[in-house]
Structures are given as C-alpha cells and as structure tokens.
Amino acid sequence: MQEPKINLLIIDDHQLIIDGIKGLLQDESDIDLILGANNLVQAIKVVAEHIIQVALVDISMPENSGVEVTRKLKEISPETKVLALTMHEDIQNITGMIEAGASGYIFKRTSMDEVLEAIRTVARNEKYLSRNVQAVLVDSMKHKSDVTQNSTEKVVNLSVREREILSLVAREFNNEAIANKLFISERTVEAHRRNIFTKTKTKTIVGLMKFAMKHHLIDFNNEL
After folding, report:
1. ∠ CA(59), CA(63), CA(66), 5° rounding?
2. Full-model pTM
3. Res 142: pLDDT
C-alpha cells in the first residue's frame, strides 16, 4: 500500500535539529515538503500558508511549551497531526501532550527509521507511541495500581465484547480496524466505546488506560 504524501513541519528552537532531520528525510518519496519553525509564531505562519499533515514538535522551547504549541496547532489546524519528539521521558509530559491532542510521542534517542515510521503512522490518522513510551505508561499505571490495590472501590463490570474492544483500543486500533477485526459495524464499535467510557467514568484514552490497569481489566504486558 502506497503511503500518503506528507507535508512535514518541524518545530524546534534549535535550528540544527531542524536542518538535521530535513537532511535525513529529504529523499523520502512520500514526504513532499519539509518546513521548519523555531517557535509558535513561526509555526502558526507556516500552517496558515501550507497544508501540513504532520507537525514534529519539541516539548521544551523557551517561549511556549510543546503542550501549548500542540493545543494551538490543533485549534487552528485540526487536520494537522502532532507528533512529539523530545528528550523528556516522564509520564507528566507524555500524558500532557496526549491530552493536548498529540497523535504520537517518541524520544529523541530513537532511530531515524522509527521517526519516519511514526510520521507515516500519524499521517494515516493512527496513533503512535514508541515501545519506550509504552513502557513508561505501563510502569506508571502499575505503580498507581500497586498504591491503590487495597481500595474498596467497586470494579466495573464490562461485557466480554467491551473487554475485547478495550483490549484493541489499548493496542491503538481505530474504530474501523476494530470493526474489521471483530466483524461488526463501526457504529456498534462506537456504541461499545461510549458504554466503556460511561461505565469507567473516564473521558480520555489516557484516563481509560490508567483505569483499565488499576482494575486489571486487560493485561498490558501482553497487549502493548
């Protein structure tokens, strides 16, 4: 399957990083345009002048944080997918970016092959969390689960189908992929997802995954 054509925006206050990524990706046939911005103001100007499929965003910038940049980009250009590329490997930054609207999160110590895979994945309107990011999320969830394991809070009773869908959501399947795998309609998938969020009293995917780990609703070691 041919990858979609991608216009890429790299947002980083270090021009050397922008130039380096440009140099490494410029010969990729599915990347049409690579632009750079050193701050939010420049980024806004770029998305106003170009259709940007993917924005590669650094988290630590002197004028605006990656979370602020992500929120603003999603506000003015909802179709642009944000991919965090950062040295920060803590749960606070990961969840902050995801909740702000980022479609993916990878560490700067990753290989350029994985960076390219992540760019292509989010460009297809899918989520991308590197294995290292997944490990941080799982460790955080396990820690919170251990702290609260003696809680008397009632465990949510999900149906077998809801548990199947929850398991696939944890593996980054979108509604169409879930429907195809389980041989049901996307409308049915969406109905089950609404029920899962209602039963667990969560509002975001991150919140749902934390809840699922806390209550042992799925086995993250096997699913991620």
Report:
1. 20
2. 0.61
3. 66
